[in-house]
Amino acid sequence: MRRLVNFWFSVLDLRTNKLRSGLTMLGVVIGIAAVIMIVSLGNGLRRSTQEQMEAWSAGTVEIRPQYMPYYMDVSSVVREKAEAVAVEKGGTLPGPVIPQPVTQPRSLEPMDVVALRQLATRVVEVTPLFESWAQIVYKGQYVPNPGVQGVLPEYLTVFRTTMKYGRFFTQQENDLAAAVVVLDESVVDEVWGKGANPVGETLRMVQQDVPQLYTVIGVMNKRPGVVGISNRSILVPLHTAQMRLSTEGKTVISYIAARVDERDSAVRKTAVAEINTILRARRGIAAGSPEDFMVQDTLQWSEESMGIIRTITMILSAIAGISLVVGSIGLMNIMLVGVAERTWEIGLKRALGAEKVDILLQFLGEGVLIALAGGAGGLALGLGGSYIASRLIEQVKGMATVSPDVVLIAMLVSLVVGVVASLYPAGRAASLLPTAALRRG
């Protein structure tokens, strides 16, 4: 019962000094709200980044050519001529000519795709791609074009893409190098207008000043999370790109995309190692020699990006936490002022039989109540601010969420701030001797 009375005294004192208590709470409110908003927006940005990277790459593993050095030797004819010139001029014979390294890529080959399809156990599907570029014009208007890609029908499976209008390429169209094109919804929205169906329309692609006419046969659904026009928005059959849009060899492959459904990092590393082993064996690379290709898990880009965002969020949360420290200092200062102002009250209570623990709990209760009230206010402000920010900031729209553990941590931090900031002033109040307190008051 006495403990409840002490608590009631704490409430009465806060009600007596409403303005001072409110201003003291404000520091805690701002600190808690800032931390909650930064954490929630950081979580939203991580989710947004993960979705965009997932949609951009579909979680594929990419195999690309690796630039490898090879050495050019000087022919014997050139050596003899150099020696003859040296003798004629009375100079010394030239030393051995050191072969100079020249960077030369070994391109990927169709048999690499076949080997991966047959032997890679953790790969769902594999498809080769050829990257090119061309000016694209529709009725005199240039089409926004980050590039043209030649693909096979397996593209839809590998990149988990679905059709909105029309259809995708057939194997026969690829074999015949047909002049057909499939567009992403983002390009259609930009050129034809949102929701338009351009199937049957004709595009003109200009490659090395040679115009070519292509028929639109399909539109792919826009991948969720991808903002703007992606680099895989304009697709043609692989053989079409190799024959019509390339000055390189007609079997050149820019890269190979392999679909790996596992999302566990360790399992994906195993899949990458398996792909690496299969290609080394197929391409005849001796043990200890470097690969002439590189295997890269696109989800690593997402993990690296999220790691950077996580670090930035932690740093900003720590900076926001400084305001919480300032608020706790302000709370301690106000509690010390309260002890000095109520010295006579403390002495009177002690003279009437109150124990040290009663005084300690009363002042400790006041500090904890201020901190918890500030924590609740900061939580409400943080939740409201996060909601508004998630509606105004496009990158985190609808993704800035506050998890229950953040709420729990916020309230625990408020409690700890209240206890720590009030412990010393409450201890000073409890240590006052009744006679000294009455005399000083």
How are the elements arranged and paired?
Blueprint: H1 2-16, H2 18-57, E1 60-65, E2 67-72, H3 76-88, E3 100-105, H4 110-119, E4 125-132, E5 135-138, E6 141-142, E7 148-151, H5 155-158, E8 163-166, H6 171-175, E9 180-184, H7 185-191, E10 202-207, E11 210-220, E12 234-237, H8 238-244, E13 255-259, H9 265-282, E14 293-297, H10 299-341, H11 343-351, H12 356-392, H13 404-431, H14 434-440
Parallel strand pairs: 7-12, 9-11
Antiparallel strand pairs: 1-13, 1-14, 2-3, 4-7, 4-13, 5-6, 5-10, 8-11, 9-12, 10-11
Helix pairs in contact: 1-12, 2-10, 2-12, 2-13, 4-9, 10-12, 10-13, 11-14, 12-13
Can you give a write-up of this model?
- This protein has 2 domains: 2-55 and 304-440, no CATH class; 60-69 and 99-297, no CATH class.
- Helix content is 55%, strand content 17%.
- Strands 1, 4, 5, 6, 7, 8, 9, 10, 11, 12, 13 and 14 form a 12-stranded mixed β-sheet that branches.
- It has 441 residues and is an alpha+beta fold.
- The longest helix is centred in the last third of the chain and has 43 residues, at 299-341.
